[in-house]
Amino acid sequence: MRALAVFQLKGGVGKTTTAVNLAAMAARSSVRTLVWDLDPQGAATWLLGVESDRKQDKVWSEGKPIGRFIHKTPYDKLDVLAADISLRKFHQSVADKKTARDSAASAIDRLGEDYELVIFDCPPILSPQIEGILQACDRILVPIEPSVLSIRAYEQSKEHLDWVKKKQWLPFVTQIDRRKAAHVQWAKEQAPKLDELLPIYIGHSASAERMLEMQAPIVECLPHVPFAKNYSALWEAVKDHLKL
Ligand SMILES: Nc1ncnc2c1ncn2[C@@H]1O[C@H](COP(=O)(O)OP(=O)(O)OP(=O)(O)O)[C@@H](O)[C@H]1O
Ligand SMILES: [Mg+2]
């Protein structure tokens, strides 16, 4: 069982879009996959066509059996541990990172019987709870859009999470628009400063909006558009790093 966190301190960069598309790609390549939605917005849950009627907060605060919170999605080999607004309590609680790490690590252990990959869709915060969950993951995938603030947020995370080994960070560029001179310049001057950057660039695409209209991962609803091809290339790269 491998655990991957999709994390970035900066909001709205494409974490959820990435989590659901990689999960759908993994499931398509026969990897039994669980998306663990950690965001009270529940966007990944919604995009995977699931509506939650359970309070995930209870998994964390009362150690409720995790299976009750897992839903099947319309896609073979892909399930989701649904999020709901109750997660706000979890993220605001004073639980320390060790408790969160131990709970996440033991949940990942138990999930290993049913899944080969769990992907955590993180909210854009760095609470002790999120840090504990990141500690239980094998790799941390970080979407970086072409902006100074995005790189800055990544550098801040690396500085704060100084226990993460360099090879565990998997930053990649997303929302790049090569028609914009500033993006081209950023790709030439800023991106090479991150020597661990994955060599896959996800373009800025109207297909991201289509995904929301169709309420489905792009690799499922429009698998032939360039945006879906970008994500299948990203999956190939991530798969190798996860040794799947
Ligand atoms: N490559 C892309 N091109 C164009 N729009 C994109 C792209 N990736 C994501 N988007 C759009 O950007 C918005 C934010 O995406 P998403 O929800 O995946 O980000 P997020 O990092 O998960 O946000 P949050 O921090 O709120 O959890 C959405 O409207 C999504 O459709
Ligand atoms: Mg999100």
Label this structure with key terms.
16% strand; binds magnesium ion; 244 residues; binds adenosine-5'-triphosphate; globular; Rossmann fold
Summarize the structure.
Helices cover 43% and strands 16% of the residues. It has 244 residues and is of the alpha/beta class.
Textual characterization of the structure:
It is a single chain. The chain has eleven helices and eight strands. It is an alpha/beta fold and 244 residues long. It has one domain: P-loop containing nucleotide triphosphate hydrolases (Rossmann fold, 3-Layer(aba) Sandwich). It has an eight-stranded mixed sheet with strand order 3-4-2-5-1-6-7-8, sandwiched between helices. The chain is globular, with a radius of gyration of 17 Å. Magnesium ion binds next to helix 1.
Query: Count of helical segments?
Result: 11
Order of helices and strands: EHEHHEEHHEHEHEHEHHH
Span between N and C termini? 9 Å
Q: What is the residue-mean pLDDT, rounded to a whole number?
A: 94
Order of the strands making up the biggest sheet: 3-4-2-5-1-6-7-8
Let me know the largest β-sheet: 8 strands, mixed
CATH topology: Rossmann fold
Assembly context of the chains: single chain
Name the bound molecules. Answer: adenosine-5'-triphosphate, magnesium ion
Structural class by secondary-structure content: alpha/beta
Query: How would you name the CATH homologous superfamily?
Result: P-loop containing nucleotide triphosphate hydrolases
Q: Estimate the strand proportion.
A: 15-25%
Name the helicity range.
40-55%
Unreliably modeled segments: none
The CATH class: Alpha Beta
